[in-house]
């Protein structure tokens, strides 16, 4: 269990690092804000004695000169703070890019930032990251995956202007590598990559979107398929939920199709809950989980990890609907009726007690929003 300090904590990668640390029960990381970086003494105090300083802050898009200057500036500011620390941190970990030193303003600035950090003479891990994708990526900024998912979620079709091969790594794997989290659970610090062409990626995500449009589950045959699906779902939530389930009735009664899976593993189970009983109060890093209330009334509530806003869905067995739990959102189900609640649950994984991917987190937690930081 390491003590960490982060720059770029509110960025895409930074948020995923904080979620992973929260899941593992590690100490809350020390956040180094944009304002902090302007004062070496403040940075020195914050990094003094920590096990790892993760330098995640950077500028990815914009005017080339501003991108280059921004990456060099934050590295220079951090280096000054590292030198000012009374007890230098044990290690500095730099979220660099495979584009470092490729002759572009961005690539050369990323390489230059690595040299600036190396000049502090502190132990440095210079981690060359490929294309990262994952839940809640910023479209038109973080990755083509985020852009394609947002376009599809809004009913459009992705445009591919130039086809090339991408090496895609899920951001939780990168977070584990940078934070020094050992292999285990649903993350892999070895950062296994999905190699896929841009056009193939767009077609693959379009198939996911078309399959999921009415609630069907696409083929989840490997870990990248699951994570691409979870990434797409993050761009659908909460606008697209709940999914209404058609009911078929005859003289015998009614039939409702709750889960239609197009490939991969899965497990279905059901539970009853007495009035006022709460189930859940946890989040998942990778597991796909579906709730369908079949009898009684309930409220499903969800909160994105690290945020305070709660999304609520009143549901009833009289009109069954689907609510799929987005990854990295704490969620719970409460019986709001006077009678017994019957709920069907489906997950894409067979339950493994050694690796349940279920992390305790109250939905109604009050979490102060951190100050603005370098994204």
SSE topology sketch:
Elements (H helix, E strand, L loop, with lengths): L3 E4 L4 H13 L5 E3 L1 H4 L2 H8 L4 E4 L8 H20 L8 E6 L7 H14 L5 E6 L1 E3 L10 H10 L11 E6 H9 L14 E4 H15 L10 H14 L6 E2 L2 E4 L2 E4 L10 E7 L4 E6 L5 E7 L1 E8 L5 E7 L4 E5 L3 E7 L5 E7 L11 E2 L15
Parallel strand pairs: 1-2, 1-3, 3-4, 4-5, 6-7
Antiparallel strand pairs: 7-8, 9-17, 10-11, 12-19, 13-18, 13-20, 14-17, 14-19, 15-16, 15-18
Helix pairs in contact: 1-7, 3-4, 4-5, 6-8, 6-9
Molecular structure report:
By secondary structure, the protein is an alpha/beta fold. It has two domains: 4-205, NAD(P)-binding Rossmann-like Domain (Rossmann fold, 3-Layer(aba) Sandwich); 243-360, Jelly Rolls (Sandwich), CATH 2.60.120.10. 29% of the residues lie in helices and 27% in strands. The strands form five sheets. Strands 2-1-3-4-5 form a five-stranded parallel β-sheet, with helices on both faces. The chain has a five-stranded antiparallel β-sheet with strand order 9-17-14-19-12, with no helix packed on it. A five-stranded antiparallel β-sheet has the order 16-15-18-13-20, with no helix packed on it. Strand 3 (52-55), helix 4 (64-83) and strand 4 form a beta-alpha-beta unit. Helix 1 packs across helix 7. The radius of gyration is 22 Å and the shape is globular. The model is unreliable at 368-375 (pLDDT under 50).
What characteristics describe this protein?
2 domains, alpha/beta, globular, disordered C terminus, five-stranded antiparallel sheet, Jelly Rolls, 20 strands, Rossmann fold, 375 residues, five-stranded parallel sheet, 29% helix, single chain
């Amino acid at each position: 269990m390491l003590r960490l300090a982060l720059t770029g904590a509110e960025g895409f990668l930074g948020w995923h690092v904080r979620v992973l640390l929260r899941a593992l029960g590690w100490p809350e990381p020390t956040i180094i804000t944009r304002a902090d970086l302007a004062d070496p003494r403040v940075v020195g105090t914050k990094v003094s004695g920590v096990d790892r300083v993760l330098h995640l802050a950077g500028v990815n898009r914009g005017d080339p000169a501003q991108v280059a200057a921004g990456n060099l500036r934050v590295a220079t500011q951090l280096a000054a703070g590292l030198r000012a620390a009374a007890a230098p941190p044990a290690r500095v970990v730099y979220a660099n890019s495979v584009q470092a030193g490729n002759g572009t303003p961005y690539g050369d600035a990323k390489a230059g930032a690595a040299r600036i950090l190396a000049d502090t003479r502190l132990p440095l891990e210079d981690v060359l990251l490929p294309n990262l994708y994952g839940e809640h990526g910023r479209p038109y900024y973080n990755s083509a995956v985020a852009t394609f998912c947002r376009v599809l979620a809004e009913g459009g079709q992705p445009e591919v202007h130039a086809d090339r091969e991408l090496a895609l790594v899920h951001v939780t794997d990168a977070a584990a590598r940078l934070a020094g989290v050992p292999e285990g659970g649903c993350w892999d610090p070895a950062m296994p990559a999905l190699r896929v062409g841009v056009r193939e990626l767009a077609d693959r995500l379009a198939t996911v979107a078309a399959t999921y449009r009415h609630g069907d589950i696409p083929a989840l045959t490997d870990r990248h398929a699951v994570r691409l699906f979870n990434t797409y779902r993050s761009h659908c939530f909460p606008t697209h939920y709940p999914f209404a389930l058609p009911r078929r009735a005859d003289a015998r009664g009614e039939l409702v199709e709750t889960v239609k899976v197009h490939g991969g593993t899965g497990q279905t189970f059901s539970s009853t809950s007495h009035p006022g009983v709460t189930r859940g109060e946890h989040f998942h890093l990778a597991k796909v989980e579906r709730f369908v209330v079949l009898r009684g009334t309930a409220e499903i509530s969800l909160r994105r990890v690290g945020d305070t806003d709660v999304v609520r869905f009143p549901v009833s067995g009289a009109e069954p609907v689907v609510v799929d739990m987005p990854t990295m959102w704490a969620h719970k189900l409460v019986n709001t009726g006077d009678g017994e609640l019957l709920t069907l649950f489906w997950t894409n994984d067979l339950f493994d007690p050694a690796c349940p991917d279920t992390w305790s987190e109250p939905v109604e937690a009050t979490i102060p929003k951190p100050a603005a930081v370098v994204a």
